[in-house]
Each structure stands twice: as structure tokens, then as C-alpha cells.
Amino acid sequence: MTEHSVSFDIASEPVRVLTGALVIEAARLAGVDIQQPCGGQGRCGRCAVQVTEGSVRRRSTLRLSPEDIAAGYALACQSVVEGDVSIAVPPQEKIERRLTTERTAVEVTIPPGYSPAAQPMRRVALTLVPPDRQDQTDDWGRIQTALRQQTGIDAFQISLTLLRRIGAVLRADDWAVTALLEADTWDRPNGPARVVDLWPGHIPDDAPLWGIAVDIGTTTVTLWLVDLMTGAVRAQVAEYNGQIARGEDVISRIIYAGKDSGGLELRDLVLKTINTLIATACKRVQVDPANVIKAAVAGNSTMIHLLLGIPAESIRLAPFVTAVNHIPALQAGVIGLDIHPEATVDCLPGVASYVGADISAGVLSSGLDDAGPVTLFMDVGTNGETVMGNREWLVTCACSAGPAFEGAGVLHGMRATEGAIEEVWINGGTFEPTFRIIGGGKARGVCGSGLIALLAELFLTGVIDRSGNINLKLPTARVRRGEHGPEYVLVWGSETQDGHDIVITRVDIDNLLRAKAAIYAGFTVLAEKVGAPLETAEEVLIGGSFGKYINVEKAVEIGLLPDMPWDRFRFLGNTSVRGAYLALLDRTARARITDIAARMTYIELSADNTFYDAFTSALFLPHTDLARFPTVQAAVASNANASHKSGKGT
User: Residues 463, 468, 472, 477: is their CA dihedral positive or negative?
Assistant: First the structure.
């Protein structure tokens, strides 16, 4: 087969590929990173490159205009190399990275009465009798004898790596050593307990033992660095999941993982994200990452599979099953985490293909499994998972909401960091906006809570109709036809950090409507299937990275949340990482998560047309059935009357 030369304008050297290779494959060989938010399916159009010399065969021209094609643009994931070519790569979208602000740090309450005895890791100080000609017990046998005397446990395990060091450690401080042991139950004499590490000398009893709690979100990875001796969270860090560049949702990533080396690439991307967070957190408190001896990891089923390099294809194919829901304890060195190589990594248990460990951990964190009245728990994020029940029963479902409310999939969307618009008000007479910006100063974009408020205000003031269409006939320059179709200008370029207008487009609105419709349809269908109408829920618990900042009134007005008394809503923030934190600290809490996962009954929403019908009905503002939203119906009528009296027309 013939080889061809492919040159990229941002690469130092051309690469050679065989006939039939994709442009994206050539880019990877050249070390050129081209984002593929749809996972290389050719749907998003954001991997477009310009062929400046030669030509390629385009298998798809989706999202490319005739003018684009005439100018040489092609989708890197859908274009085949059949000759020598030169390619110009447009500047790639920059994913906002500044997540480590005061908004990502939350106040963490240490569980009442916490004691380090609650978790499986313990240090045991040993003073051994040196061997002599009369006592030639081997080093490992000598340690086991001392450990039996100190702990009452009979059996012990140790790795080959640690065995190779054992002789040097014992002799480094005159046979005084400290052993780090892990035992599921310390009062079980048969054990076994695992020797995680051995250190020369005696370490003070109150010296820190370090662990990490990790939530691998589809959009964001969050990590807490924890002192296991006190239970205190010493550092909190967060970062966009590096896998976003290869797919913004779980389905796109599963598809990408199925390609040659795609799974390995996704695994490396999330490991790089986590390891960067580990280094950042440890640096803040002057801790060597090698001293972190335990990790509790939560995440949806796909994220856990991709982290461990387990094929996830079965998750997206009927009958939608995972390879594994309950993963045995693993060691950090095997996974690739940059902490102590013998550290225990506990991937928390999930329930089903689309209800993973993040929800098991979230239910624990929220206390739903111990609630008396019927309670609704929602995790508002890229995947909309819902659990309904109480201490007697738990039923759950999931739907793909997309990343719109987490700042992705929206032209000027961003995370809730400095420069993000978090609240919006629009004057119904002039259509002029006012807004609140995190940190003050000039705006950089709009975060999830700001998008919810903006959508509600546009609807109530008549800038958009119930279908999301923008009224271009309004007497204001704020509505116009832009590069991406009809749009509303929220901030003029003279008032932004980068000098460009911040707008919301019709495409953005469609993405937001689909996201809110999926979430609303999910919990309404769940309630119907279990025969417990939404109004029977005495409390609605909302988790998710931005849930804490949602304006309930605005969320109800767009149909994201049910029209219920506001005092029933409670926003909990990131329940997944807090659940992982509790499991990290306490064996009892960890066992409770296993029980939660076992108790939850999973309902597959794709089993019939019920969800699709509910989703379609919820694609309007706030819903096709206004009777479900009486307070919104009243607000719309009030605004219409005010508009009529003022003589304002559209």
C-alpha cells in the first residue's frame, strides 16, 4: 500500500501514513492535538481542518457549508488521506482551566465522633529482637510474629515489592519499624491483614496518614486530600476531565474507546487529570504524593471502566450492562495513580450501566437511604440520574442530559469561576439585561446557574417563545442573526474580558432545552413507574457540581425542576465526592454504600416509549402541559397583561 506525506502547519515535521488513513490519525502521529467532542463520529464539526495543498476524500461533510468545502475545510475524523497533503489546523477551543477558586472549595464537616479506628488503615510500631545463631527466623516470619502479638490477627499478606525492601528496612534503625496495616475488620483474628508498607523507626501515633477522595465526573474531576488521622480535608482541587477533548458525553467516549488505541488514550487522559490534581493538592500542604496510602473513587460506570481500561462497549448496547459493578480493591501502582504504589484504591460500587458509583456515593452523602418520608434525589450533571425512595425502598433511573448545564455545548458557556455570569435579569420593557459576575470585573462567559436564569428571563420577557425561537422583530439591537443563526447579545464586546460579544444562540437554547427536558422527563417517568406522584416527595435533594447555585424559581420557570414549594428543595453540591470521602474514612460508611447499591432497583428508561414521550413533552418552556407549572403559568399571564397594558407589541 502506498505511503503519503502529511504536513501540519503546527508540527515541526511531516508524517507518513498509508492510503486510507484518517487525517486525525496522521495528526496523532505528528503530535497534533485536534479535539473531537463527539468522539470522532463526525457529528460536532469541531475537528475541522483546512487542506492547503493536495486533497482528501471527505466521507462526511456534516456541518460544513459549500463555502467551507470550497475553501478546503474537512473533518479530520471523517477525511481519508489518499495523497500528499498539507493541512492548516485552526486554533483549538481552549477549555477553561481555572477551577481552583473559592467556588470549588466547600466546607466539609468531619463525621461526628470520628476516630482513625473507623478506617481500615493503621500504623503498628514494632520493636523486633534481632536474629542470632540461636534464632534464625527469617525477616518476614519475624515481622509476622510481632504483628500477631500486637494485633491479635493471625494471617498477613505482603507484596513482592515490599519483600524486596524488608531486609534493609529492618536493619536501618536497629530493628525498630513501623508497619502500615490494612484490615477490613480489626477484631477478626483470622484476618488476613495486608502489610501496605514498612518504615524504619517508630512514627508518632498522631502523624498524618493521607488519603484521597476522587469523583470522576464526565465533565469535571474533583479530588479531596484527607488526613485520615483527623478526618480533616486539607485540600480541595478540581479540573476538567481531559477526556472531554475526545467526547463530551459518555456515549461519545465509549465509541471513541472502541477505536484503535482509543481506550488506552482515554485512560491516559483521565489518569493525567487525576495525577495533576494529586500533585496540586499535595503541593498545597507540603505532602509527598508517595505518602498517600489510600484512595476512594466514585464516578459513573463508564468513567470507572475507562479509568481501569475495562472495555465499556456493552454499556451502550442493548441490553445495556456493565462489565462489572463491584470492583475489588486494587493497588495504585497497577492503575497508574501517582501515589504510594501499594496504596489501596477502592472504586465504589455502582448499580447499572448508567447509575454508577457516583449515585451510590451520593445517596449515602444525602442520607436518602435513611430517610423516613419519600424523597427525590437528583444528580444534575452531564448524566441526569434520579433516585426516589426512603429507608424502606430505593428506585433509580438515568438519562443522558448532556454537558450544557456544566458549561460545555454552549457557545459562551463556562464553569462557575471568576468572570462567569451567574445570575441574569432582563427588563421586560427594554429587553436590556443586568447580571452578576463571579468575582466582579468583566465577563468571560456564562456558567450553569447563569444559563438557567438567562433562559427563564428570555422566556418570561418574550424574547423567546415556548419552543425557544428568538423573536427577531423586537425593537432592540440585542436580538440579531449571527454566525450561528438567531442570537441574543447578553454582553457587548466592550464590556467583556476578550472584547467579543457574549451571546446565547438558538443552537445553545436547543441544547439547554434538551438537557432540561431529559432531566425533567427522567424523574417524572420514575415517579410514574413506582406509583408515587412527584407531589408525594416531601423533599427534593439536588446534587451536582453546580446544583448549589441554582435559583429554584428560575429552574422551575424553565421546567428543569418540578413546580413545588421552594422549601422542599435542598441543594447539596458534589454529593459524589463527599460520599467517597465518607467511604474513605469509615468502614461502616463503606459497607453502607455496598448495601445502597444492592438495594436500588434500576429502571431502564429505554425499555418503552414512556421516556421519549415525556422528553418530547418537556422540550417546551416550561412544558407542553402548563397545568404542571401553575406558578409559571401565572407569571406568564401576568407578564402578558403587563405587556398589553403598556402597549408593547412584538
Answer: positive
